[in-house]
């Protein structure tokens, strides 16, 4: 067992040059991570809105196709509602509540409110007109040449949608997953998930890349293909309903999603392994999902012979692609969830000649959470508003421009450029926003120009909600390792 202890120790090691932040307050970080979603809201804001510098915006969305598409979330620092990553964020918020809602305390109500803001929007996107699923609202090309507040938008609010003739299997399946996960979180089944999943994905398959074209690409192209979303969506519907048809679909298509350890808004592979492993362990079916989940875990561990990620000297996990903290938060979430599942099953994981238990996975996730919140070489929290030292010049329109209470006059498309160019800190603090994070050498440029490092996104924050909820609870002692 000494090898297990060595593995745990290596994960917990902090470099001698590490700048220590104050002790981590996970409950405070949890509160702020959920509050961030209020800053991303589109539509008519409720009286309960706590980030009061944000005001109503995009109140006519969907009018071009005669569907009320008011609401939902802006995905990042722009003013477009990309439904594909928004649905993934909603799924992850739902999963966070399913797994860790009991640890959220008074924040559970706010987490459920954040989920409902997404589900209300997706019910409009999928239920307003038969055989139509709205894919996004807002022309990204015109939006991205402007720097203006969402409250001032005068760019085209084009509505993009998929149909039987122009299908979007990954989009419809991810929305189905979001509604299914949300149903479990609320304890009330949204029957619409079944029609949403069967309207386009099964009978008329195809990628929304082709159907939405320039609206989706190059912004949120589905690179991994749509089969992972179909299996992911079916798995969530089975978890929500127990209908065997969906479990049969998952098993029948397991070969198409094996051997890939990616997880995020585009790729659902590792998430499928972990999600399905819960009932596969209990029912003794789907052993291939359990082995895939085991292999996924081994691919993360710093001294595993099958490691497929990299670690900075400061200890942050890296994968290829921008906005790296999306990987750190999502993979940390899966590590904790799988740790809980193998704890319940009294199972360990073989990684080469090592044996790994739940504590190792939790310690890995904790090292990532602590790094994000300030235990890193810079002593910088990558969550805006958490701690004393955090990014002040994030790439985010609403945060950068003066709010309406200070500057009630309209700010046009190009009138916001001076606010982008200034070296002054953003006037509005987007509390709880987790930025894209540092470079692989642990350096960070606090600059609006450095989009991969300074832009926050909903899909960075959503899995981090679950991670923080887990660590905000009293310490759990594992019975085996």
From TrEMBL:
Belongs to the glycosyl hydrolase 9 (cellulase E) family. The active site is at 395. It catalyses: Endohydrolysis of (1->4)-beta-D-glucosidic linkages in cellulose, lichenin and cereal beta-D-glucans. This is Endoglucanase. One of its GO terms (molecular function) is cellulase activity. PROSITE patterns: GH9_2. It holds the Pfam family Glyco_hydro_9. Its EC number is 3.2.1.4. The keyword Protein biosynthesis does not apply. GO terms for biological process: cellulose catabolic process. Residues 26-468 form the Glycoside hydrolase family domain. It is an enzyme of class 3 (hydrolase). Keywords: Carbohydrate metabolism, Cellulose degradation, Glycosidase, Hydrolase, Polysaccharide degradation, Signal. It comes from Flemingia macrophylla. Residues 1-21 form the signal peptide.
